[in-house]
Design a protein that fits this description.
Blueprint: E1 2-4, E2 10-13, E3 16-18, H1 23-34, H2 42-50, H3 58-71, E4 77-79, E5 82-84, E6 89-90, H4 91-100, H5 105-112, H6 126-152, H7 156-169, H8 174-186, H9 190-208, H10 214-224, H11 252-261, E7 271-276, H12 282-292, E8 300-305, H13 312-319, H14 329-340, E9 345-352, H15 355-358, E10 369-374, E11 385-389, H16 394-405, H17 407-411, H18 414-423, H19 428-439, H20 446-452, H21 465-479, H22 483-491, E12 498-499, H23 500-507, H24 511-523, E13 528-530, E14 534-536, H25 539-553
Parallel strand pairs: 1-6, 7-10, 7-11, 8-9, 9-10
Antiparallel strand pairs: 1-2, 2-3, 4-5, 12-14, 13-14
Helix pairs in contact: 1-3, 2-3, 4-5, 5-6, 6-7, 6-8, 7-8, 8-9, 8-10, 9-10, 11-12, 13-14, 16-18, 16-19, 18-20, 19-21, 22-24, 23-24
Length: 556
């Protein structure tokens, strides 16, 4: 299920909205969602809902609200004498994640696109109002940061328009006016920029009896002095690549293949793809390869997170200096191809989901190259060459653990260290989560780690944080499967290889359907072929699938 708080409180299952009942019942769900999986007792819920003016039967009303929400399909768990929603898919969580990432214009636009009205609208009470105020401040700051990012990336006109709206809404807020002065100045409108300071000074003096703050006064001084740092020279070949990871390990054959293939061509566009399981290291490898070949692409290295960008084509056009964008998507795609033909330009398209998403983003020929990452191979891109990324080798896994923990820790018990590395199947995020846990427990030997680390049984009172870190990408992958695929992944989980007849028997489907279903899970990198007619789970995926299998058997 997914939930929305950045507007009316809503819940969705399979894109169908769930009826959540009257306002106080919706408020109960909202309070639980805002606690981010922390259990709340009935009395704490009463306090949040009524703020000290609760009716006599408030506890009973809360329990009734929870019961009705459960009946509607909301998975509220009883925990520690209270109630909790565990790891809900929430628009607010995604908003905060995007704000915490690199604050590029793309991530900020994606964050602000999640808003669909006044947060918690329709809910009354001091608690809801305090949260509304807090969230509104976060949104204001994100809008200011987006304007600043647009100015930094040369979109002065767009920033100025957005800031005009923001100033009209918040006339006494000084940062939008400071940014407006900068946007106008960089647009060659110095007099208008200084007029913003004058009008702000008059407004603050008449309304509050105050003078502009130090940032506004400093901006005025720099404009009057024609400070050259206010108009930085933009490089001719912009690079938007994320930094390389210092602990990058292994992948030598894959990296060599990509570096060799990513070369400018005279009449076509080389397109290389990296496919693999979520969190297997596709983006890391793509960034490493892009930095390796950057010298071959002096006109620019562009990077777009397709999952976060609301308009990838517009982002790419702005990346090459186009500020006046055509209205239709077909015109934008044509302009993109025309402007990029002949440019030595590398385009990295991260987390692609479909061929339709990629096709308009392919640049013109005779210079550019494209590097794509995707969880599944995009068979509709006939001209693309794909590299399948699996786990690291045992030796590379040990090397990564040495980078993260130091060689002395592993040297204490080499055999246990190798066993631990092997059990991770070389999955980088598993290795990193395990290393983070071991770093927090310096007294543990590697042998102790083998016995202590692992997914707890269903119903255990606590799930270790490293388990959440390991399984979150798999949850995301599972959510993209069909119900039939997800059921097969869970039901077939076994430490021994699975044959097609076994799968057909367990699932109660014909052999031909079972064969197609198993191959679809291979395409999603959730199963691996084992011989000619059998399939197996890598250990981290097996632990995840067995956990899901056991949870499905628990009484509700």
């Amino acid at each position: 299920m997914r939930y929305e708080l950045l507007g009316p409180v809503r819940a969705w299952r399979d894109d169908v909205e769930i009826e959540l009942g009257p306002p106080q019942q919706r408020a109960t769900l909202a309070v639980l969602l805002l606690q981010e999986s922390t259990p709340l007792s009935p009395s704490q819920l009463v306090s949040a809902l009524w703020s000290g003016a609760e009716p006599r039967a408030a506890i009973g009303m809360v329990r009734s609200y929870v019961s009705r929400l459960r009946h509607a399909g909301v998975p509220i768990e009883s925990a520690s004498g209270g109630y909790a929603l565990v790891a809900p898919a929430l628009d607010l969580t995604e908003f905060q994640r995007l704000l915490a990432s690199a604050r590029s214009s793309a991530s900020l636009r994606a964050a602000l696109a999640l808003w669909h009205g006044t947060p918690l609208s329709g809910l009354s009470g001091a608690y809801a109002e305090a949260e509304r105020v807090r969230l509104a401040e976060l949104r204001l700051t994100a809008r200011e940061d987006l304007a600043a990012a647009d100015i930094a990336e040369g979109r002065h006109a767009e920033a100025s328009t957005a800031l005009t709206d923001l100033i009209a809404e918040e006339p006494l807020r000084e940062r939008p006016r400071e940014l407006q002065m900068l946007a106008l100045y960089r647009s060659g409108r110095q007099a208008e920029a200084l007029a913003v300071f004058t009008s702000t000074q008059q407004l603050l003096e008449s309304e509050l009896g105050l003078y502009p703050g130090p940032q506004l006064k400093e901006m005025q001084r720099r404009i009057l002095a024609a400070d050259p740092t206010l108009t930085p020279v933009q490089p001719s070949g912009p690079s938007q690549l994320p930094p390389q990871l210092p602990e990058f390990t292994g992948r030598a054959p894959e990296l060599a293949t990509l570096v060799e293939a990513l070369k400018p061509m005279d009449s076509s566009v080389p397109v290389q793809g990296i496919e693999g399981l979520a969190a297997i290291g596709k983006t890391t490898l793509a960034v490493q390869a892009a930095h390796k070949v950057s010298g071959s692409f002096p006109d620019g290295r562009l990077f777009v997170d397709l999952a976060a960008s609301p308009d990838p084509l517009a982002e790419l056009l702005r990346g090459i200096g186009v500020t006046a964008l055509p209205g239709s998507s077909s015109e934008r795609a044509a302009l993109w191809r025309a402007r990029t033909t002949g440019l030595r330009l590398l385009v990295v398209l991260d987390d692609a989901r479909s061929e339709e998403e990629i096709r308009p983003l392919i640049p013109g020929p005779a210079g550019p190259a494209v590097l794509i990452t995707a969880r599944q191979r995009l068979y509709g891109l006939a001209h693309a060459q794909w590299t399948k990324l699996g786990g690291l080798s045992p030796s590379d896994s040990l090397t990564l653990l040495e980078h993260l923990l130091g060689p002395a820790r592993l040297a204490e018990d080499p055999a246990a260290s190798l066993t631990l590395a092997t059990r991770t199947a070389g999955f980088p995020q598993v290795l990193q989560a395990v290393a983070a846990r071991l770093a927090s427990r310096p007294a543990w030997t590697m042998s102790e780690a083998l016995t202590r680390l692992g997914r707890p049984a269903p119903g255990a009172p606590v799930t270790p944080p490293e388990c959440w870190a390991i399984e979150k990408p798999y949850e995301s992958t599972l959510s993209q499967l069909t119900p039939t695929q997800a059921e097969a992944f869970r039901s077939l989980a076994s430490p021994t290889p699975i044959s097609v007849p076994t799968a057909a028997s367990v699932l109660g489907i014909p052999l031909s359907d079972a064969a197609v279903l198993l191959e679809s899970l291979v395409d999603a990198h959730l199963l691996e072929p084992f011989g000619t007619d059998r399939y197996r789970y890598e250990e981290p995926l097996l632990m995840f699938a067995l956990g899901r299998q056991a949870e499905s058997m628990q009484p509700s």
